[in-house]
Amino acid sequence: MNVAAPRVLVVEDEPAQREVLSYNLEAEGFAVSRAEDGDEALLCVDEDQPDIIVLDWMLPGVSGIEICRRLKMRAETRNIPIIMLSARSEEVDRVRGLETGADDYIVKPYSVLELMARVRTQLRRVRPAASGQVLEFDDIKLDAETHRVTRGEHSLKLGPTEFRLLSTFMEKPGRVWSREQLLDRVWGRDIYVDTRTVDVHIGRLRKALCQHGGGDPVRTVRGAGYALG
Ligand code: CA
Q1: Which CATH superfamily is domain 7-126 in?
Q2: Which of 18, 58, 101, 212 has the CA that lies 20 to 30 A from 197?
Q3: Is 228 helix (H, G, I), strand (E, B) or coil?
Q4: Is the pLDDT of residue 207 over 80?
Q5: pLDDT for 228 beyond 60
Q6: Which candidate, 118, 131, 122, 189, places its Cα nearest to that of 1?
C-alpha cells in the first residue's frame, strides 16, 4: 500500500464474529487489532491508536456503550469514529447508541459487506489519503491513487518511505508526530527500525519537497517530533 494502512480496532467478545470481521478487514488492507472485552479495548486504543473502532454493545465487564462514552469524553480519542454493533434493534436503543456519541450503528445480524461500506464511509473522513482522495497543503498536492506529488507547477520525485511520511503528515496538517508514532505508522510495528532512521527520511522528504524551491513546510518540534505546517 502506498500510504500507511488504516487501522481498525475490532471489539467483539464472540470469537467467530471477531475473526470473520477481522479477516474481511485485513483482506481490504486494514491493520486490525482485536479486543474481546472493554478493558482490553481501552488498552488497545491507547497502544494502537486506531483510526476507526468497531464496537460490540454487549460485552462482558465494561459495556460497549460505556466504552464509547468514555472515548468520546477524552480529547485524544474523541475524533476516532465508532461504529456500534448491537443485537438490539429497538429504536430507543439506536437513539441511545447515537446519543452516546457513536458515529454509526449497525444491528446484528449484519451483512459484512454493509459493515465494510460503513467503515469506508467513516474512513473517508479520518484517513482521506487511505481512501484515495487528493490531499492539498499550501501548494503541495498528493494523490494517493496515482502516487503523484506536485508542488506548484512541479512534479516531485519521492521515495516510497517519503511518500508515506508525507501522506501521513498531509492527512493531519499541524499535528505533531513523535518519532515513535511515525515509525509505527510509516514503517509498521513489526519492523525494527531505529528512531534515527526517521530523522534521515525526514531530511530526504524536506529535500524532495524543496527540490524546485519553496520554503520547508516540515516543522521540527523540539523534544516532541515533527509536524507539517
Ligand atoms: Ca457480544
Answers
A1: Response regulator (3.40.50.2300)
A2: 212
A3: strand
A4: yes
A5: yes
A6: 131
Residue 227 alpha carbon to ligand 1 centre in Å: 39
pTM for the full predicted model:
0.86
* 33 Cα to the center of ligand 1, angstroms: 17
Which residue in the block uniquely carries the three cell numbers 436503543?
93
Q: List, for residues 17-48, the tens digit of each pLDDT value.
A: 999 999 999 999 999 999 999 999 999 999 88
* 86 CA from centroid of ligand 1 (Å): 8
C-alpha 56 to ligand 1 mean position (Å):
6
Closest by Cα among 189, 218, 223, 176 to 201: 218
Peptide bond preceding 50: is omega within 30 degrees of 0, i.e. cis?
no
Cell of 218: 516540515
Summary mean pLDDT of the chain: 92
Per residue in 39-85, pLDDT (tens digit) is 999 999 998 889 999 999 999 999 999 999 999 999 999 999 999 99
Domain map of the chain by residue range? 7-126, 134-228
For residue 209, give the C-alpha cell. Answer: 519537497
* CA of residue 55 to ligand 1 center, whole Å: 9
CATH 1.10.10.10, applies to 134-228: yes
